[in-house]
Amino acid sequence: MAGIPRSVLITGANQGLGLELVRQMAEGPSPIRHLLACCRDPDGPRGQALQDLAKRHPEVITVMQLDVTDLCSIQRCSQQVGSLVGVGGLNLLINNAAILLTGTMQTTSPEDMLATFNTNVLGPMNIIKAFLPHLCAAAAASSGMAAMSCSKAAVINLASLMGSMNLAPQTYHIVPSSFSYRVSKAALNMLTVCAALEFQQSEILFAALHPGWVKTDMGGEGGDLEASESAGGLIRVMDSLTEEQNGAFLNYDSTPMPW
Ligand code: NDP
């Protein structure tokens, strides 16, 4: 491993994979200084599990309000993160929050398509832009380290095999009613590639990671993996990333995914 990130921010951290990533990072051997666990309603019932986890690790976890579709919420969160991390910046940003609305192309309304893009594509884009100064600060503060890593400055976008155009002929008939989600995750893949190229000089690493088919609210009971197994794999992949994987699309077991 290239080192340990001092500060990590995770969106959609109140349930599913996001909550499990926070739990494993807080309880793992790596001494993360700031684990910034974001969710859209931290004080509501959906934020309870995260609040309980944060109470067990008050020195590490900070629960923050962040609705990825709300620019004001994103800007406010970015300012708060700046105050917390200071000149050390933000080492690792994990764009995990997403929605899956059911529908084929024929049954998907323009409103559902826009809602899906707002959360799954514009959300990560606006968050990357708002947190860029903190990522750049982290890259500058770690200038003595190897060129790129998640402990220096990186953005991980939670991608999906459903966004893979190469795999669509195999996966389409298994889940035909996820049209807007598929298109949004394909767009997120291109966002990842463009960002990797645009911010290469700033030494910020970008990667799209598929977590497997996971038993969460989104993945359902039929999933192949428990959230703990997937999150453990994702953390191992993040630990191993170098500049060679900048812009890559990888599975939770680190094997390359077909675009
Ligand atoms: P869940 O549905 O269990 O969790 C999604 C999270 O995103 C929730 O915390 C939810 O918050 C949050 N969220 C949704 N909209 C917003 C918003 N506007 N602002 C802030 N947070 C929001 O999904 P998973 O944990 O299964 O998925 C995590 C990631 O992994 C997603 O990007 C998903 O696409 C990807 N993925 C998952 C797979 C699976 O099999 N589970 C397979 C492939 C990819 P709230 O509780 O408030 O709704």
TrEMBL record:
GO terms for molecular function: oxidoreductase activity. PANTHER family: C-FACTOR, SHORT-CHAIN DEHYDROGENASE/REDUCTASE. It comes from Muraenolepis orangiensis. InterPro entries: Fungal_SecMetab_SDRs, KR_dom, NAD(P)-bd_dom_sf, SDR_fam. This is Ketoreductase domain-containing protein. One of its GO terms (cellular component) is cytoplasm. It comes from the Eukaryota. Belongs to the short-chain dehydrogenases/reductases (SDR) family. Residues 6-165 form the Ketoreductase domain.
